[in-house]
Amino acid sequence: MANESRPCPCDIGDRFDYESRGQELQVEHIKAYVCKPPASTDKAVIVIHDIFGWQLPNTRYMADMLAAHGYIAICPDFFVGQEAWKPSNDWATFNDWLKTRNAGKIDKEVDVILKYLREQCGAKKIGVIGFCWGGAAVQHLMLKNPHLKTGVSLYGVIKFFEDRSSLLHPTFFIFAEKDEYIPLEQVTLLEQKLKQNCKVDYEVKIYPGQTHGFVHRKKEDINPQDKPYIEEGRKDMINWLNKYL
Fold first, then answer.
1. Is a pLDDT exceeding 90 seen at residue 116?
2. Which sequence positions are flagged as catalytic?
3. CA-CA distance, 162 to 236, in Å (whole number)?
C-alpha cells in the first residue's frame, strides 16, 4: 500500500561514497555536473535528479556510468539553487517543499541545457533519464519536448502526470514491485492508458522484489539478493538509450 503520509519520498538508501569523474560548471543560470566519454560523440543524456538533488553521489555515479558507455552526461540542478530535500527534514513539510519544485516546470532549464549540449558539446542526439521526482520529469518531457529523442523514467512518481499518456518519443518506464510510494495498481493503469493513447514505442517493466530507488540508491555489493535486478535495471536503461540514440 502506498504511504500517503509520505507522498513521494523515499529513503535516501545506500549513499555512495563515490568520487565522481566529471566536473561542475555553470550553464547560464544553472549549475550542472558534466561527465564526458573518452572518445568524441554527438550523443548526450540529460540526467534528472531525485528529491535529494543534483549533488547526490549516487546520481553522479549514474552520470559517470553513461559517460563510460559513450554518452556526454549532464546532471543540472533542476531546483535552481533551492535546497534539495534532506533525510533529516520533517516529512510533514514535504508537500510545501514540493510546491516550489514542480517536475512539470523545468522546460526553461531544459532548453538552456539543450542549447549548451548542441552548441558547446556538438550533441545532435539527446535523450533523458530521471529518478523518482526526475522520473516524473522525464514523463513530462516525453509528453511535450520535441527536441529529445528518447527517455527512461526510473520509478517516476506516476500521480504527477497520470492523466496524460500521449508520448512523443520512445519511453522506457522502470518500476519496482515493492515500491511503497508507487502502488502496482497505478503502474497497471499507466500501462492501460499508454496502450490506448501512445503512438510511439514504450515499455513498462516491473522488477521483482525491488523497492523504490533500487537502480541508483542501492549498492550491489551490500545488497547481494538485489544485485541481479540492480544490474539488469542499469543494463536495460543503457540498452534502451543505445537503441534510440
1. yes
2. 132, 179, 212
3. 24
Sign, CA dihedral 85-89-92-96, equals negative
What is the arithmetic mean of pLDDT over 115-139?
98
**pLDDT of 19 above 80:** no
d(CA 219, CA 122): 34
pTM of the model: 0.93
Mention every residue, 6+ apart, whose C-beta is less than 8 A from residue 228: none
Give the residue-averaged pLDDT of 21-32.
97
| Separation between Cα atoms, residue 25 and residue 143, nearest integer Å | 29
Q: Quickly list DSSP for 78-118.
A: TTTTSPPP-TTS-GGGHHHHHHTS-TT--HHHHHHHHHHHH
Cα(168)–Cα(155) distance, integer angstroms: 20
3 state DSSP class of 173: strand
Instruction: Work out the angle at residue 94's Cα, subtended by the Cα atoms of residues 92 and 95, and round it to the nearest 5 degrees.
Output: 100
Relative to beta strand 43-48, strand 30-35 is unpaired
Which residues, at least 6 apart from 70, have a Cβ–Cβ distance to it below 8 Å? 37, 39, 41, 43
